[in-house]
Amino acid sequence: MGRATGPDRSRDPRRAAPRHRRVRHPRRLRGRLPLERHPTGALSRVGDPGPEQQPPARPARAVRLDHHRGRFQRGRRTVAVRARHGGPAHPQRRSGGLHRVPDPVHRPARPAPAARHRRRAGVRAPRYHARSGAGPVHECALRLAAGQGARARRFPAPRERHHCPPRHGPGGRRASLPGAAGPPCPAGHHHPSSRHGESPAAPETAPRAVRPDRRPDGATTRAGQEVPDPRARCDQPERRRRRRGPRRAHRPRAQARSPRHHPRAARLHETAVSASLPSDPRRRLPAVEALLAEPDVAALLGSHPRSVVVRAVRETIDAARANGGAAPPEGWGAAVLARAHQLAAPALGPVINATGVVLHTNLGRAPLAPAAIAALRRIAGEYSNLEYDLAQGSRGSRHRLCRDLLVELTGAEDALVVNNAAGALLLALSALARDGEAIVSRGELVEIGGAFRIPDIMARSGAKLVEVGATNRTHRKDYEGAIGPATRLLLKVHRSNFQVTGFTADLAPLEIAAIARAARVASLFDLGSGLLLDLSPWGLTGEPTVAEGLASGVDTVAFSGDKLLGGPQAGILLGTKTAIEACRTDPLARAVRSDKFTLAALEATLALYRDPERARGEIPVLRMLTEDVEQIRRRAETLHNGVGKDSEVVAGDSEVGGGSFPGAKLKTWLVALTADKLTADSVAARLRRANPPVIARIADDRVVLDPRTIFPHQIEQVARAVRAALDA
Fold it and tell me: Which residues contact 494 (CB under 8 A, 6 or more apart)?
């Protein structure tokens, strides 16, 4: 058992205790005593001289070490350090310096007696105490376990002053100070006592003997209140390095204990609040592997590729996540099954056009005649003589396949078929005006579908665009004044998708051709739709025919094959032998050449024009444009009877579409649907989900169906789809 060393009796007790730069017995301390930083207080270095007034000396205090700390086994010693504290800390006073004794050092075995010398008025509050309410520290009294000596070592300097107070005891529970005053914090946090006050002196009692190392039950005991393991905090760099900012000004206790003024308390409060809130439903969404293990989903792996099923599962989960985490109303298995069938279905499929727009660009424009479909079927499954001359047994040219038929029907000198009308215009400009100037009226710089503009196409061809005239009026002198040495071509564009009315002036293709011949330059007429039959007897006027374009005398005429002609997508060039041969030999000709399916369908469609009446009856576009209104009404009545009471037959208008006959209206009869509990958009959306999808239009907040563009064999399918949409 170590001996307690008392204060020097020969020294004046009224004098302040001297500061210690080194321990009194330097050879008795073998190792450093690890000192804990106080989280909130301030402490000067031990032995640091300064002008601050020191408190008077106090009686000795006993401290003992724990013998169960391996790293401190040989560090138990007795050291005599003079106390530098004037008295115990008040419960309401914020203690500074080191908040608690290092872990191997225990609380005194006996409470310290009352101080012999009271602190004079104005002396600063004590700066060190192990725990609030533990009593004052005795001067130069450390009591170590039996058999332990002391050797001289310097005390390590205390660390920075301002730190958070320890929040937990050695067992992980929240520590509470015996001497703390005031009601507990609402947030459940300990607040250090105030610095402005003086705690009552501890009662003077006799020293206690050191308790035995173990209780009868074998549990390790420690005298006084145990101090948490200092190494636990040292292993946490974020705690060891954290520093508090400047001290806050004094405020009322209720305000000081509010979680708003304590960041850590506020964070814990927010954590508790968030824990009480319901969790995000999206966290409960099933995993992909979990859905793949479902019986309904696992059965899909036998009929669909695994990649399709996995993609269907992921997209179903993504759709549920986008819906806020709600499961599909039909169930996970049914939702995955529907998505898998949708992914496995072809992306390009048939639809029913109930809009009344005959040449609907978004719906593939012109449907093919039965003869063209048969030609595609005949060519698609077998080899063909696409570029083989059967008579010579040598290589042939695909450009000859439709050439003779086009020359026969139009009277042109030569013909060339490419993949689309824009390709035909690009090829003609490249062959006839490359590296030169192409003159065009400013009012004819049109924009076709898909945001493609005539100036952009001309720029790609290598020709330089020269605009003449005004937007609404262009005269002959404008063309003649713009012709120069670099001029290669005069371009005439038919405004097929818009109209210019009012104070306008324009040059006919006949005049353009005359000016070009006089200037010895080429001329090109972009017809657009390419009408082979005159439809004026059915009220469709204003669209130039191919024959009229060639009769104007221009060198080349360009038009589409899938619009008013009623064939497949194609670009057709007709004109003089010189102009068409220049287009055929241009390097771009191979880039825009047509394939065997286009040539087969186009040849079959053109063959129907040898008999105009047969063409008007078998080519769907011509039949729809020239169909009698009474026939349309009879089909409308049939559709109305199939739908039931939720529909009625009303008069309406149809459109040509496809950039043809702008502003023209075709009289028709419509079937208007009535849905009391559904909006027009909802009904239209349900019709689009039918099999096959039905594409309708909305007029006056009602869904209307135009039988003009519905084939006769599709009437019953449309009726079933409408009933399903209204009854769902």
Answer: 525, 526, 527, 528, 544
Q: What pLDDT shows up at residue 267?
A: 61
pLDDT of residue 497: 66
Give residue 130's identity as a one-letter amino acid code: A
Domain boundary among 561, 590, 618: 618
Tokens, residue 85: 């504290």
Residue 589 lies in a domain: yes
The tens digit of pLDDT for each residue in 684-718 reads: 999 999 999 999 999 999 999 999 999 999 999 99
Cα–Cα–Cα angle for 457, 447, 599, nearest 5°?
65
Q: How far apart are CA 395 and CA 389, in angstroms?
A: 6
Tokens of 52: 């601050």
Evaluate the CA torsion angle 272, 276, 279, 280 in order and state its sign: negative
289 burial via Cβ count (<10 Å: 0-12, 13-18, 19+): exposed
- Residue pair 444/492 in contact by the 8 Å Cβ criterion: yes
Q: ∠309-311-316 over CA atoms, to 5°?
A: 95
Distance CA 60, CA 354 (A): 105
Q: Is residue 267 situated within a structural domain?
A: no
pLDDT of residue 24: 57
8 Å CB contact between 679 and 669: no
Mean pLDDT in the chain?
A: 76
What domain range includes position 505?
A: 410-534+542-618
Give residue 684's pLDDT: 96
CB-based contact 32:102 (threshold 8 Å): no
* Ranges under pLDDT 70 in the chain: 1-278, 449-451, 497-498
Q: 596 and 455 in one domain? A: yes
Quote the CA–CA distance of 428 and 425 in Å, as a whole number.
5
* Cβ proximity of 417 and 572 under 8 Å: yes
Whole-number Å distance between alpha carbons of 269 and 285: 29
Number of domains in the chain: 4
- Rounded CA separation 162/145 (Å): 33
Q: Is the bond preceding 692 in cis, omega lying within 30 degrees of 0? A: yes
The pLDDT > 90 percentage for the chain reads: 50
- Residues belonging to the chain: 728
Q: What is the pTM of this model?
A: 0.61
Instruction: Say if residue 709 is in the same domain as residue 599.
Output: no
- CB neighbour list of residue 657: distance below 8 Å, 6 or more residues apart: 357, 358, 359, 360, 361
What pairs with residue 670 in β-bridges? 650
Per-residue tokens: 275: 């824990």
Kindly state whether residue 371 falls inside one of the protein's structural domains.
Answer: no
Quote the pLDDT of residue 192.
Answer: 47
Q: Which two tokens stand for residue 63?
A: 């401290």
In this structure, are strands 487-493 and 437-441 parallel, antiparallel, or unpaired?
A: parallel
Structure tokens at 656: 């040509």
| Residue 456, pLDDT score | 86
Structure tokens at 205: 């009692």
CB 19 within 8 A of CB 143: no
The burial class, CB within 10 Å (0-12 / 13-18 / 19+), for 25 is middle
How far apart are the C-alpha atoms of 15 and 5, rounded to whole Å?
19
